[in-house]
Every structure is written in C-alpha cells, then in structure tokens.
What we know:
The complex is a heterodimer of chains A (476) and B (415). Chain A folds into three domains: 13-69, 3-methyladenine DNA Glycosylase II, Chain A, domain 3, CATH 1.10.15; 75-337, Dihydropteroate synthase-like (TIM Barrel), CATH 3.20.20; 350-469, 3-Layer(aba) Sandwich (Rossmann fold). By secondary structure, chain A is an alpha/beta fold. Chain A has helices at 13-18, 33-41, 59-69, 116-128, 152-165, 177-187, 202-212, 224-236, 254-270, 295-311, 324-337, 370-382, 399-404, 410-420, 441-448, 462-469; strands spanning 75-78, 85-88, 106-111, 130-133, 136-139, 142-146, 170-173, 193-197, 216-219, 242-245, 281-282, 316-319, 350-354, 363-367, 387-392, 430-433, 451-454. In chain A, the strands form five sheets. Chain A has an eight-stranded parallel β-sheet. Chain B has 15 helices and ten strands. Chain B has an eight-stranded parallel β-sheet. Chain B is globular. Chain B starts with 14 loop residues before the first helix and ends in a 7-residue tail after the last helix.
Amino acid sequence: MAEHRKSIREVSPIEVYQRLPRTNCGECGETNCMAFATRLVNREVLPEACPPILRPESAQAYAGLLALLAPPVRAVTIGTGDRAVVAGGKYVLLRHEFTYSNPAPIAIEVADTLPEKEREARVKSVSSFSYQYIGRDLTLDAIAVRAASGDPGTFRRAVGQVASLTDLPLILCTLDPAVMAAALEEIGKRRPLLYGATEGNWKAMADLALAHHCPLVAIAPGDIALLRSLVQTLRSCGIDDLVLDPGSFTDGGLAATVQAFTDIRRAAFEASDELLGYPLLGVPMAAWLGEEMAPELVQWKEACLAALLLTRYADLLVMHSLEGWTLLPQLIWRFNLYTDPRRPVSVEAGLRPVGNPDRSSPVIITTNYALTFFTVESDLKGGHADCHLLVVDTGGISVESAVAGRYLTAATIAGAVKSSEVERTVDHRYLVIPGLAARLSGETEEATGWRVLVGPKDSSGLPGFLSTKWPPEKPS
Amino acid sequence: MGPEGEPRRRGIEGLLELLPELREMLTRVKQVELEQVSLDIGDLELFIPLGAPGGPGPACGSAAEAARLPAHPQELLRETFAPVRPEYPARIREVVLGATKAEGGSRGRTVTIGGAAAPAYSGLEAPPPHLPVIAMDVFDYRVPLPKALRRHVEEVLDDPGEWAKRLVERYGAEMVTVHLLSTDPLIRDTPPAIAAKTVETVLQAVDVPLIIGGCGDPKKDAAVFAEVAEMADGERLLLNSVTHEMAEARTLEVVARAAKAHGHRVIAFSPLELNSARELNRRLYDHLPPENIIMDLTTVALGYGLEYSFTIHERARQAALMGDPELSHPTASGCTNAWAAREAWMKLDPAYGPQEIRGPLWETINALILLTAGVDLFMMMHPAAIRTVREMAGELHRLAAPDIDRYCSWTTVQI
Lengths: 476, 415
C-alpha cells in the first residue's frame, strides 16, 4: 500500500503555500499567497484561480499542488458537456469532517428489451422528473441502459434511441464485450460509463474503455481482494477512471453490503489504499432480483436499500423504480447529506422582507431554525406573497419544538417585535403566528399589544391564508 | 382484539396488510397485466430469459486502435485485502429497561440496549450485543394524527390501556411510550395524580417495559415524573425526558432523585449540540449512575434537518468509542418526528403517490439513516415502518454470505 496520504484536514495552508508562486501578485483576487492557500485548503477556491501557476514554467509546482489537494476517492466524470456528472471526489470518511462533494448521481435503468414506445416514455419521465424543495429543483441524473437482450444489434438500437431522446449521461450495462462494442460504435463519444469489467472479461473491456476514452466499472461482488486485483490490472492497462462495484445484496445480504462499502471507504481513508480510492457504485435495483413479490413491495424495498447505500458511501446509484414516492426521499436525503456540515442550524433573527412589502403588508412570525425559515420563505415566494417575515430567535429550533420547549413564547415574540422596531415599518398592528403556535395567541396579544391572527399549521397554506384573511377586517 | 389480528404473512410481504394503499395499487396493476397478456402474446419471445453473458468475450476495437494502447498485463495481477479494524478504547454503556417480578417490577421481560464497541455495521464479525429496540407511541388524549397512523388505532384512541395492548398484541411492540401530553398547562393541565393513573392502567394492560413521555414544561414534567416514579416503584421506567430547561427551572434534581429512589431510567434530551449533551449528563451524574442514562440528541424529520441529527449521532458515537465517558450512553431517537415533514403527510401531485405510503416510507427511511449512525432505541408509530426497520436491523446485524450469482444477473433480468 502507498505511504499514508494526508487527509484534507491534515493538509496545512503552509504546505499548500510552498507549492504556490509566493509572489503575492494578487491576480487571484487575494491579498497574498498565504490567504489563497488558506482558501484552497478550505475548498473555497480552485487551484486554477491562480493564473501564474498555470504557466508552463510552474508545471511541476502545479502537479505537486494537485497531488497534495487530490481527494483520496477519485472524481470520475460520466458524460460530456453541461449534463456531465461527477461521481466520487470524496475528501473525508465522515460527514462532519468536511463537506461531502459531488452528490451521488442517481441513474434510472432502461432495458433494451422494452418496446420502443415504453422505453421512450421511460426516458422522458427520467429527464423531466423534478421536485421543488426549499427553492431548488431536485432531479435525476443519468440513464443506465441494460442489454437484457444479450444481442448487439438490439442493444445498439436501444442505446441509440435513448441517446437521441436525452442528453443525460449514460451507463452501458452488459458484461459481453461484443455487445458493449456495438453500443460504443453508436455513442462512444458521449463518454458513457461502461459496466463493466469482471474477472472474465477485463481484457476486452479494458480495450473498449481505452479506445473510447470511457470510465469503466470494476465488478467483483462479494470479493474485495478481487476488486483490488481488477483495479491494479486495469490501472496497468492505463485506465484510471474507474468505479467500483462491490455488490449491492438484498435478501440476507444487507450486512455484507454495508460492511463492504464501509471497509472499502475506510481502506481509502485510513490505510491510504489507492486501489480502493475510487467511487462506489450502489445498485438498489438489485431489490428486483429477490423473491418474487408484489411490485410495490419491491419498490418499497428498493427505496430502503437506496437510502442505506446513499448514507453508507455510495457515490453513484442505479435504480429501477421511477415512482415519485420511492425517489422523493432519496433526492431530499441526498441534497441534505451533501450540505456543508458547518452550515448553521439557525439563521439570523430579525425582520426580513419577502417580495416587495409595504406599510400595509402582513407581519408573519417564524423561528430562526434554518430549515423552518427557508421553507416558510420559499412558500411565501412561491405564492408571490409580499410580507415582512419576523424571525424570532428560538435557538435554531423549529416551531413545534420551540413552542414545547418554551423557546417560542409570548415573551420571545414580544422581544422580537420590540427589537425589530417593526412598528416603524408597518402601519397596522397585526401579527400572523404559526398555526402550531396557536395556543400562544392570547398571551401574545397581551404581551405585544398587537392583535394576533393564527396562520396555517404548515406554511404551504400561507399564500392561501393571506389571500382570504389579509387585510383583516377591522374590529368594530 | 387478540393475536388473531396479527398479519398472517411475515416479513416484507406482510406489509401489504399494513399498507392498504399499496394493495390497491397492486390490484390495479394486476388487472393491467392481465389485459396486456392477451394483447402482447406476440411479444412473448422477448421475455424468454437469455443466458447471462459473461466470460472472456471476443476482443473488440480495431487493430489500429489496439496498436496504440499500452501493453496489457497478460494475467490478472493478484492482490489481497485486509480490512481496517480500528481498536476502540471504549464501548457504549448498557442500560436495562423494565423489571420483571423477580427484579421488583411486573414486566414480562426486560430490554437491554447499548453495548456497542464499534461504529454501527462495521466489524460485523463481532456484532454488537443487542439489536436496536423500537418503542411504539400511545397518547393520553386524542391527538390529531395523519390518517395513515390513525387508522391502525382508531377504535382505541381514547383508551391508553387498550391502545397499548393493541400495539403489543397486534404489532408486536417491544416497548410502549405513554405520552402524557395532556398534562401540558396550555392543553388540559391534567394533574400528576391522574397522569400516574394513566400510566398504572397501561402497566396493567401490557407487560412490556414502558417509556413515560412528558409535555415539555419543565415544572409540570417534574411534578408528573415524580408522581409516576413513585406509583411505579421498581418498574425501571424510562422517563422521557430530563432537559436543560429543568436545570434552569431547578426541577432537574426532583426528577433525578425520584428516578433514583424508585429505580427508573432517564432520557437526557439536548438540542443537536454535543457540549450541551455532555453538560446535561454531568449534571445527572451527581444524582444517577451513568448506567441509568440514555441520550436523545434530537431527531429532526427527513427534509427538515435530519442531516444535523445524523451527523450529531455519528460524532457522539465516534467520540464515545474514542473514550469520551460523557457521551458513551446509548441513544434514543423520536423517529415519529418524521411525520412533521410535509412530504410525509401532505397530498402532493399524484406522481408522488398517496401520502398513506409516502408517510410510512418517510418514517422508515428516517429510522434507517439513524440506524447507520448507531441509534439504539427508536420511538416510532407506523406499523409498516416499524416492521421494515426491525427486519432490516436484524438483517444488518447478521453477516451472511451474499448470493453473488443472483446479484450478477441485474444487467439482464426481465422486470
């Protein structure tokens, strides 16, 4: 095994600084090279933001810098152009150490045995799948075309059809090099991921990967030693864009699956095992290989397996289910898992305008828990509501827990009203409080002297609430 | 109701009886399939399984291309693998819940949690001594519940004893949480004596160990826990929870003393902050042996900050195994919180399926994610979620040789 490579947390700005030009030229926008080095270590900028290091005379220093900053799990690009996706590129084992990079792309499989119309419909569903979550569009990333027919002509036609329908990156799935070669003649230039090389076919698959400059999956289910052997061999062939498939097993094999994913990732980080420093492929679709049962139950099982694999180090997933209810938890969990763990749980308290509020716009109370705030803000924006959002400091706790834990009380609301000087911003004296804080309404009226309207329990109802209840009828 | 209510089919297939919507969807699909069989008979040859391709296939690529490529090794270069198995200096404490007659209580059996000596599901050659435990929720008044949850307990919602009995007999609950929510001064302000009566009723109705949930008011909870602790002397109840607010309201000592005097255990609740968890534990050590303390580090719903919960659990477990005695307590998670996510209960576009399926799956995945972070005790509600998590936790606990041939067929399988 290689000498222990420093993890991202062990690389110091000094070591990075030593590989920079050290001229403090300021071309990167920083005041000096040390400041740039610190930002590089924190992954806030790319080395390429330093123009002098890209000059030919700096080639050696540049290579050294890239090696120093390279992630222990290689980043592998699948596809080309705007829609290309990156799998892997991980700097840490555990999420709290540093932000996980490159959210695991989710590929949906399409078989070459499907009737053409059905395949077209499936590809279109994948391309158009989208869910709005706190102001972001969560989407699917790739299509895995399977040569279920085993026939080169059939596979080639299916792959060609899929490629003409979408610019999403493709994964070509067949263990038969002749079948793979047929598809590559059709779309080799799109840099598909080839699935893949086994103990039996690696020579021919290596030739194809090299000839078409495609990344390749090394397949060794249930055998990490064989996986290392394949990687060593394929590297000797000149291939370094590799993805690892240690097997995703169900029906009794869950423990072996999670343990293998964990062992491989640990070897890459804790033993600097370069042969295992590649992205991991998870195949929740394997749920469909188990005992025969109702399709909805298999979808349920596949959803559970996908969430487990996402959590336990998979860098790329292949799924069969295209049902919204199986995909929604994966897309949301993936989004969350790959956020910066240093991101605060809370946002700054105070008065925030949403839309273009004026002196007659409603004042809406919410908490400073980041997810609550972003959800409420996103719902209000989505409903084109103009209002003043009064964010109460609840210690970063959501509404329901803050009410139960006495962080959101009449007194804390009154405190927020006072310190925000909201009475200077609006002419009316009405507060809209969250429905989950309904029981605070009486006390809040007493503590603030403002009248209270109880809003909906979920902020998705706010735009509708405002359209019927605002402006409030003047009390007689 | 009795054991005849038990779903007949075990395992994931039994889920159908717990998720009627899934069955309805299934019925529709079956009809469609039948129609297709008569229409598509001509396509049948497509569905004849083909032999799995593989083996050394014909070499591909043109000769010119091959000439440009570096020389390949002729044979596979054999490598070995030895997994990294760090030795952790410490392990998680074990906590025993519930007491049998012989031990001074009235429970049919006890439940032990904790004891992990490595991060969850790593080093499974030596699995942790105990499987995670799942407790099911009972409330002391008619709380609003999503339909998917309500329908399993509709008839017993006003009777905590019968409710608990149903959870144990029909859904196999290993533990029951009695949430004394109505004691909240802002809800019904139920007096401690009445709350204790409710707990007594549940103790008589079922013989599994109980968790007692408060209302969140530090003063009221202290009074209720003290009363319940005395009434259930020797039962090794789990009081959920003691908090920093109790320390501020100077009621923490009351609860800790009552727990100690009557032989109960406590959950120390802290809001997603390890220093705060440590500090609360330190306060409790003045009154209770560490073996009587479980930590709740806060469970937030998937989509609403579950990543904070996941990461705090991973960090706490890592620190505990590395030797931080103030964090080496088993952990508890209120996974019922998953239902706070709108994706769990709200009607969405039909493309996302009915909420009656989305909800239980949401709760299931919430729990599975925290399972990988090492949570020892789950508090959950939906029977299908509980069954799935129990099965998967059991499977994750047993390292077995996987079916490699079956897996290798995924590229060619006909679905």
